[in-house]
Specification:
Shape: elongated
Structural class: mainly alpha
Largest sheet: none
CATH superfamily: Mitochondrial import inner membrane translocase subunit tim13 like domains
Membrane topology: Peripheral membrane protein
Distance between the termini: 47 Å
Number of strands: 0
Number of helices: 2
CATH topology: Helix Hairpins
InterPro entries: Tim10-like, Tim10-like_dom_sf
Radius of gyration: 23 Å
Helix content: over 70%
GO cellular component, one term: mitochondrial inner membrane
Keywords: Chaperone, Disulfide bond, Membrane, Metal-binding, Mitochondrion, Mitochondrion inner membrane, Protein transport, Translocation, Transport, Zinc
CATH class: Mainly Alpha
Strand content: under 5%
Order of helices and strands: HH
Family: Belongs to the small Tim family.
Length: 102
């Protein structure tokens, strides 16, 4: 009965460490999926507002062109910001690793 109330992640066995890592990986994956979904929603909302002035049954060729360009620009911008952010994080990590501890 006492095992029932025990936190499965609090023990230090290799099995519980693997379980903890699996849960952390699952949470990371779910966060990545949520972020990707939010990116898609933002992209669609912004580009639709900018390109589709008179919603109807179909898109005109100019609306299709506008949407294509808008989505391309949005993704290019997102990728540039992401690369810059990752590079900054890597730089900060390397600087903190090379800083001597007092």
């Amino acid at each position: 009965m006492s095992d029932f109330f025990k936190n499965p992640l609090s023990t230090s066995s290799p099995d519980s460490a693997a379980r903890k890592q699996a849960i952390m990986d699952q949470v990371r994956n779910e966060l990545a999926q949520a972020n990707a979904q939010q990116l898609m929603n933002n992209m669609n909302e912004r580009c639709f507002k900018a390109c589709v002035t008179k919603p109807g049954d179909s898109l005109s060729s100019s609306e299709q062109t506008c949407l294509t360009r808008c989505l391309d620009r949005f993704m290019d911008t997102f990728n540039a910001v992401s690369r810059t952010y990752v590079a900054r994080l890597a730089k900060e990590r390397s600087e903190s690793d090379s800083t001597p501890s007092l």
